[in-house]
Design a protein that fits this description.
The protein has 971 residues and is mainly alpha-helical. The chain contains 46 helices and ten strands.
Length: 971
Amino acid sequence: MRSHAPSLVGRDLQLGLLESALADTRQGRGGVVFLVGEAGVGKSRLAAEAVGGALGAGMRVLRGRSSTTGPAVPFRPLTEALMSLFRSGEPLDDSALGPYRPVLGRLIPDWDTGERESSSMVILGEAVLRLLMAAARGQGQLLLLEDLHDADPETLGVLEYLVDNLEYTPVLLLATVRTDFSDALDLAQSARRRGAATLVELPPLTRPQVDGMVAAQLGTDSPAEVPVPVLQRLWEDSAGSPYLVEELLQSMIGAGTLVQGPEGWRAVGDLRSDVSSTLARGILRRIDRLGEQGLTLLSAAAVLGRRFPLSVLQRMTDIDDRALLSHLHAGVAARLVIPDEPAPDWYSFRHSLTVEALFTQMTPGRRAELARRGAEATEELHPELGGDWCALAAGLRCEAGDRAEAGRLFATAGGRALAAGALGSAVTLLSSAERLLAAGADPQARAEVLENLLPALAEAGDFARAFDLAEDLHALDGAGLSPARLATLHTRLAKVAHTAGRWGDGNRQISRAREVLTSAPDDATAAAVDVTAAYLALDTPGPDRTQHAEKLARSAADAAERYGLPVVACQARELLATVARERDPEESAAMLKQALTTAERHRLPLQRMYAATRMGGNAWLADGDTAGLLAAREEALRLGSVSIVHTVDGILVLDSVLRGAYDTAREAAVECLAVVRRLRLAPAVRYVLTAQAALAAHLGDRAGMEAALAAFAEWDGSGSQEEPLGFGLARAFCALLEEDRELARAELGSVLTLETDNPSTYHLSGTHGLVLLLDVLAGTADRARHDEITATAVARMRWNRQFVLLADAVLLGREGADADAAQAVESALSVAEPYPLAQHLGLRLIADAAREDCWGDPVGWLRRAEHYFHGRDTPAVAGACRAALRRLGAPVHQHRTGTSGIPEELRALGVTVREFEVFRLLAERLSNKDVADRLFISPRTAEKHIASLMTKTGAANRADLCARSAALRSA
């Protein structure tokens, strides 16, 4: 007799949460719920209840499941879920998708026009979101994705976008995730922390719940009708796992140790046995009841994987339709397999233990033979091996012992993943291919794999593995590869070295590539060598490195046009844009636009990301705008480009320093530095250490600055692109905050020397801004020098522009153009608005010149600067400002350091001096930003002070607090 559970046991709370979420979704308030628990705890059973509830309420249900067979295939669960939209026969109004419809061709083959404008994962996420909303039909929609712990990185990238954007839509995303460590679990926990998702944890069943489940399975009215030893044994052996309770109970019944008689259920014989062996024997007994043909069918299915396609299974076993369906229905009745509902014609085993039990019945030879037949069936039915069929066939070929063919198939699947920007899947698939082909006799095939695997590893940040593979190039040198192929491999490794900041290693690989090509010149291959050499040249110390890099890049760009090499064309234009930025921003922008267009036209997601990152960098330098960099970072995250993510992170750390967001900068720098040091990502390490040095300098911490710069030197800092920044943004500013202007000029003199010996494309070191201002103040730069500097594009970058405008103001004041000088100061203050330290330091620097030449408002500027530097505890500058005010005969404000100025009733409540300053301003009902501007603090700090005041005073709300402040002022 079989047992059956008519209802869900012990999950009332979780089921209630799901029912509430579904009800909210039908009202247009969707969201995300992650069901998290151990294998066998009942996640799928609970999800099935949610599906039933959704369907009963008239909602549309889309279901997808991650693959557990072989390497993960990009977008598998999403494609599976969305394809069900087109199997229902109901028309779908796709007019709301607009330009996003072609983007969905990556997931919906019928919509793949081959003309997708963009490979952006952000855009793909938005496209999926719009499709889900369009398909919700006003009644709400449930998107169920099961086994997310097996999902590919690309699916998780799209889901991360959905998680953050489903709240006010008629769509509920329900996903099941195991508690084992996985990226999916990280995504779920991160979403819960920021309030973007609900995480429903399914604990093991309690003893009463297990007893209740057993009673329900056996069809009794209560656990009291079940023998106590049975309940005890099931509780001890199952550890509260519903799946194990079911399986162990079935095993007891099948073994005859639990029987039903006229007086109910009774235990017969010894209930004790090894859990795993008991389960295996129980499963095999049920399989035996299906007959020999049933055993053959399920054995073949087990070789295909836990999920298996009926079409392939039928072809490899040669069973007719009637017999196939008969055995499958019997397997379902025996609780061995279940229909894989999201995918038509797919079934799956209820548990991995069933697959393992079947394997124990097979000899290695039998298993290999079934795998061979499975691979042949897959290839016959799907000759192109599109989608995940290629990875399935590769896994089967490997199981069959055909390592060479398996390696070639994994290589094909990996190449497709890399072309689609799916780095995580590409590395997994290509690594499998390389491992299989390494011991084979086909060096050509292995070389093809390495050509893709090396750059994929570099983008993923696995430099150690990439350089380990470099040793294999020596073996391939004498393996009969063509010179072009060998040169390509050396070039790919050179690119890896460049990404890792190892320009010496990279140049050696370039030399080897050129040496190989001398015996058989190949212009197309030489173009790829040239563009990689150009990037290395830009980083290799030397006075002509910029010119040399530009020459190589132009040669590569010309060859790319002649031979139709889109990747080389993109790379060359991106480098040319970097070089052109110094002389002509419009030329730089045009180059990047060309690179972006080429990348989109040829579906090159990584090159598109590079172009977008450089565009974001240009915008940041020009206007201080980080929006483009943040968008590029999101793109890099979804593509898995570790190097770009951390490159952008370094820039954002420096941006926070310049903006005075020191706490943010400090935390981000520590977090980023820990990762990039571990990855040995030298350029990112140097940039973040430079930002840390600038942070310490801007806080007046000379010891901290020197420590950061010493660490910088250990990472090949000498002669690097980043080295001038350490002098211009760190040492020079530290000296100015110590009121040592001559030392600052000396440090900036070092910058000029460094830039002459090793030109840099990082343009914030001061050569076109702060140097000019200090030279003008010192009388060593005149109007002609100013005009020479301002004619350059670098001087128009926002950080530099503030100092150039101040230098112009000083010169105008000397020339007697007082009104124009004052206007130049106002323009400088406007440009410097995001950079409070630089803004107030600029006022301090020009005040003496304004006093001497009788123009502007030196008293007002000094007071403003003194207030700022006193508030940030920079005594040298604050004292210098007070001394200058005294020289001008202006009264000097005495800062209150105690609490004597605070009214007694507020002082008794613990109100601090700064809180009282905020409290007084609230009488004017100012915003947080206005309060912050008045007190030279951040809006966030103002907000915290106001919250503290409300707590201490007991004010009901902000309006009440403002009223109390006004009352105090009028008293």
